[in-house]
Structure formats: structure tokens, C-alpha cells
Design brief:
Layout (H helix, E strand, L loop, with lengths): L1 H21 L8 E9 L7 E9 L5 E7 L3 E12 L2 E6 L3 E3 L4 E4 L4 E8 L8 E8 L4 E9 L5
The protein binds copper (II) ion.
Copper (II) ion (CU) binds next to β8.
């Protein structure tokens, strides 16, 4: 009898979390994502993800990673240029202050999609789960685009 009393609220909480994710919000963290696109290079080269984050909440949001069924691995990268040479390196996390917008854009921050597991082409959608430091996740649909369009 006692176990039933405890099970019911847990199931309810799970259902609510699912609703919040499908609505495009991480609960407790009002992060909105817009203009998400995945630039696809030919062959086995990694893809690059660009988007804008808007933290509409009143606490700092910390993006710590992402995952998708379409690629083996996703890393947060930052591009830089030294002596005319383009470099990029992986970042542990990106912080977005309350009320701030943060742009993942060409020649700056991007998600690096490594090891393609599925075939897709321009115009397709790729579902990506953004992960935050408080274990919240945000499901985002990326449009597959040509690098030339950026
Ligand atoms: Cu990169």
C-alpha cells in the first residue's frame, strides 16, 4: 500500500517533465533556441551546428554538451584565428547570463557533430538534445543546410 502512494507522484512528475521538453523549455531554466541549423560537409567530415540561445530566466544557464542519434559524438567548439590560420578547440561549457542572448555562429562557437550515423541531406531535420549543468535537457530541431548558405 505504501509503495503505491509513492509511485503515483513520481509518474506524474515524469509526465510533466516530458511536456515541458516537448514545449521547447527546460524546466527551471527558460532557455529558448532559435535559428538552429546544421551545416553539412561532404563525406565523413564533421558537421557544424549554429543557433542562438536566449536565457529568459533569472539564473545563469550553463550549456555543457549535446547529443543526437544522428552522430556518434557532439562537442562544443570555439573557432579562432592566429596569424591567418583558423583553429578550433573544444570547450567544457558555455555560460549564458540571465536575460542574455548567445550566438553559435560561423567563425565563433559551434557544435561539432562527429561521426555521422545516419544519411540525410539538405532540408532534413536533425533532433538534438542540448544538455545543461543542472541535468536539464532541451530538445532542438536543427535544419540541415549547405555550408554555402551560411
Ligand atoms: Cu569545431
Amino acid at each position: 500500500m505504501v509503495s503505491h502512494l509513492f509511485q503515483a507522484p513520481r509518474l506524474l512528475a515524469g509526465g510533466m517533465l516530458l511536456m515541458l521538453i516537448t514545449a521547447g523549455h527546460a524546466s527551471g531554466q527558460d532557455v529558448q533556441v532559435s535559428n538552429a541549423r546544421l551545416s553539412l560537409l561532404p563525406g565523413e567530415q564533421p558537421g557544424a551546428g549554429y543557433f542562438q540561445l536566449h536565457n529568459t530566466g533569472d539564473e545563469t544557464a550553463v550549456l555543457v554538451g549535446a547529443q543526437t542519434e544522428a552522430f556518434e559524438d557532439v562537442e562544443i567548439h570555439m573557432s579562432s584565428e592566429e596569424n591567418g590560420m583558423a583553429h578550433m578547440h573544444a570547450m567544457e561549457q558555455v555560460e549564458i547570463e540571465a536575460g542574455e542572448r548567445f550566438e553559435f555562429a560561423p567563425k565563433g562557437h559551434h557544435l561539432m557533430f562527429i561521426g555521422r550515423l545516419k544519411t540525410f541531406s539538405e532540408g532534413d531535420d536533425v533532433e538534438v538534445m542540448l544538455e545543461f549543468d543542472d541535468a536539464q535537457q532541451l530538445s532542438v530541431t536543427f535544419d540541415v543546410v549547405s555550408p554555402v548558405s551560411l
